[in-house]
Amino acid sequence: MPLERSAGNPIITRESIPAIAPHLEDATSVFNPGAIMIEGRYLLMLRVQSRGRETFLVMAESPDGIEFDVRPELVHFRGIEQEKERIYHVYDPRITEIEGSYYVVFAADTDNGCRLGVAQTRDFETFELVGLGRDRDIRNGVLLPERLGDRYVRLARPNTQHTRGEPISGDQIVLSESNDLVRWKRVASVEVPTVKPRRIVTISIHIFLSKSYFVAEFGF
Fold it and tell me: How many Å apart are CA 54 and CA 85, to the nearest integer?
């Protein structure tokens, strides 16, 4: 299916973000949303930054995928405040429907590096934290839209590349499985080209959601 850019891009800008006192009153950027379509509605979970470089998640909704109404409230994952680690930011959400529930995989910056967390919702009004994964220094996670038996399957990008003067990054996608969305077992590495690895790996994770391809390549 061909993809075409909207003539109205950008469809959401920082001016689209309402003031949400007291935390978000002067948004400076909005980017990298999670997206899903439900019963004719397009939903985005936006990553929004304030002038103080704090990161927040905000929902937006549209009937056509172009004209969005941004909700004047922050997304909160109930239960995240009970985590023992200090969490500085949550960002880069990815939304997947599995068996009637919606799961949000997100990155969380902690004192022990970046970790992937999972939250669950049925209505996009309230969100419950499932938990933070045990993996350290890993980002760009997304769940496949079906379980294989009793296993959830996740694609993610470990941060294993240390380049002087640049943020820690990664050059591969790894495939993992879990029974509880918290403890993950690595199954395989997904092959990707080595040219411009950061761009290729990120794009691959966003589109690699075909169960049939996964089954064929990895023999499940």
Answer: 18
